[in-house]
């Protein structure tokens, strides 16, 4: 029989104690925090006959409380009390603040003490703090619509329930934390590998943004400083459909450059920012209009970490991580990891910028060396081709044509070993020197000897190959000197072709060679084709195979104009998968 206090007799008490003990056992087997909370508010409430039960947990910032589970409430309670400040006057908030079990009986006593709790006519309220690791992490709230007196056995078992609940949550969180830490470390290692893999920072940082989701965050945005302003470089979201929504938000409602928090604030100050809880008040305060607020709410923002990308005391950009659908909240540990990743990303971005500037200088220098057009008088037909390799640094191929006042034609082609600015600078020096020496005395062996002397005098460490030809229509000859370069192909007017593999010597500046030259007949209609090794080399193939392939292709194309012959040779002979520059220079005597 149930007594006037609703507690029942000894049999009912025994049943309640048994059911409470069973709930405590269930908590041991629970494998999620949500599972623990659900077991408490359902089975725990039934065990003690509570009309309403709630489970709340203190947030990481220890300023707000989150409602984890609720049974017996009215419509709207879960939304209204989803999060609330720890300072509110409710039983659970007070139990968390004080760490003390609360049992308050009587409607007047309840309403006087808990002024923020809705008046539902409760007769008894109970709040049990959840203690773990020396601190309070949450509370169990019980509400009875009838007067309820708890005897010592029930109180003791409720305390045991609260302790078991706290321990289960602590155990599960420790397991989750260990899993998250392992995932974060794996993410950091993978991101570091990605950042070191390429100098294309736009692609690299875009990949890093995608790596962060969902391991570290639900949403990641990367902005870079461009002419004093922030430019959105990459966005990744756990829900691909919301990427467009995020772009729309940034485009239609750009962040306030003078705002008190967010990417602009971090860029200005160079200091990281952690917002453990993004509240509705914050969204409303930041919104320009109701539509802006609606879009922001649709993204379900929960927590945010924003860190600067700093290298050499310059803020290069900002990375923002946001949690949303997962309802995770960032902690100081997350901020530390974010800053570690940002340091690596900043170095990668800075290196990419330096490389981009260096590459631009090298390309500009190379363009100054390589002629846009090669031209000569009406007695000559010229053709040329240059295609850079598909890489991030310029190569060392160069060529040029010089028509002398007496009608002779100098043509040369070379290859500086190496890439980048150093190779481009060497190209410029050698090209200028060849033109100068050719103007003084164009004889091939003499020009190469003077280049050797220049290399020896200045102690150049660059390895340079050079093929130098002097065509003389008066003598019907072409004279060749070669410093370690692939030999040219001679195309006769009758359509035959052969390699001119003689007068060869070491690359410029290597040893102290005696340079030689060779004279070959060169009549009207004859053509000579010079090239760099990128045209004929293929993986796993001897270079002589490439030379023969070139000669065979040249025979089939001999009747073509050089403007058509040169690109056709490149298409037929070169290996498009090979990472090397290809340069071709051809001259045909017309009269």
TrEMBL record:
InterPro entries referenced in this protein's UniProt entry, alphabetically: Bact_Sigma-Reg, GAF, GAF-like_dom_sf, PPM-type-like_dom_sf, PPM-type_phosphatase-like_dom
Pfam families: GAF, GAF_2, SpoIIE
Domain of life: Bacteria
Signal sequence segment: none
Keywords from the named record: Hydrolase
One example GO MF annotation: phosphatase activity
Residues annotated as domain PPM-type phosphatase: 382-591
Protein's UniProt name: GAF domain-containing protein
């Amino acid at each position: 029989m149930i007594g006037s206090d609703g507690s029942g007799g000894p049999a009912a008490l025994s049943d309640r104690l048994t059911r409470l003990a069973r709930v405590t056992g269930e908590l041991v087997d629970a494998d999620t925090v949500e599972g623990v909370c659900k077991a408490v508010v359902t089975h725990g409430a039934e065990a003690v006959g509570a009309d309403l039960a709630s489970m709340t947990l203190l947030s990481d910032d220890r300023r707000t409380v989150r409602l984890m589970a609720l049974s017996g409430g009215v419509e709207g309670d879960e939304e209204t009390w989803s999060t609330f400040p720890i300072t509110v006057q409710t039983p659970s908030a007070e139990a968390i603040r004080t760490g003390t079990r609360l049992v308050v009986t009587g409607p007047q006593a309840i309403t006087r003490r808990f002024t923020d709790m809705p008046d539902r006519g409760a007769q008894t309220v109970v709040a049990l703090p959840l203690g773990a690791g020396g601190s309070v992490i949450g509370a169990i709230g019980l509400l009875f619509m009838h007067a309820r007196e708890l005897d010592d056995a029930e109180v003791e078992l409720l305390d045991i329930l609260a302790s078991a609940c706290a321990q289960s949550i602590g155990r599960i969180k420790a397991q989750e934390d260990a899993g998250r830490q392992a995932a974060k470390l794996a993410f950091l290692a993978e991101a570091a590998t990605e950042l070191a893999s390429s100098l294309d920072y736009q692609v690299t940082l875009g990949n890093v943004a995608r790596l962060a989701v969902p391991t570290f965050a639900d949403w990641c945005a990367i902005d870079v400083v461009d002419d004093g302003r922030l430019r959105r470089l990459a966005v990744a979201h756990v829900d691909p459909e919301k990427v467009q929504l995020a772009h729309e938000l940034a485009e239609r409602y750009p962040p306030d450059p003078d705002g008190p928090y967010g990417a602009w604030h971090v860029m200005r100050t160079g200091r990281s920012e952690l917002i453990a809880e993004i509240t509705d008040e914050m969204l409303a305060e930041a919104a320009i209009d109701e539509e802006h607020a609606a879009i922001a709410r649709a993204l379900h923002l929960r927590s945010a970490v924003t860190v600067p990308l700093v290298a050499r005391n310059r803020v290069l950009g900002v990375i923002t991580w946001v949690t949303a659908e997962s309802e995770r909240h960032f902690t100081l540990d997350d901020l530390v990891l974010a800053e570690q990743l940002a340091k690596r990303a900043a170095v990668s971005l800075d290196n990419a910028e330096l490389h981009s500037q260096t590459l631009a200088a090298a390309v500009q220098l190379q363009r100054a060396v390589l002629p846009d057009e090669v031209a000569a008088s009406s007695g000559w037909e010229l053709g040329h081709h240059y295609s850079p390799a598909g890489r991030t640094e310029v190569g060392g191929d160069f060529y040029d044509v010089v028509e002398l006042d007496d009608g002779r034609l100098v043509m040369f082609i070379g290859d500086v070993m190496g890439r980048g600015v150093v190779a481009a600078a060497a190209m410029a020096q050698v090209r200028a020197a060849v033109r100068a020496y050719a103007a003084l005395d164009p004889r091939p062996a003499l020009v190469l000897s003077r280049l050797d002397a220049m290399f020896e005098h200045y102690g150049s460490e660059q390895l340079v190959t050079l093929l130098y030809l002097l065509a003389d229509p008066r003598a019907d000859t072409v004279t060749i000197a070669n410093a370690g370069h692939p030999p040219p192909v001679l195309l006769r007017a009758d359509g035959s072709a052969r390699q001119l593999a003689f007068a060869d010597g070491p690359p410029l500046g290597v040893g102290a060679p005696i340079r030689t030259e060779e004279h070959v007949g060169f009549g009207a209609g004859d053509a000579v084709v010079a090239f760099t090794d990128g045209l004929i080399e293929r993986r796993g193939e001897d270079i002589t195979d490439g030379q023969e392939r070139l000669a065979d292709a040249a025979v089939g194309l001999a009747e073509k104009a050089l403007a058509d012959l040169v690109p056709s040779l490149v298409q037929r002979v070169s290996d498009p998968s090979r990472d090397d520059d290809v340069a071709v220079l051809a001259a045909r005597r017309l009269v």
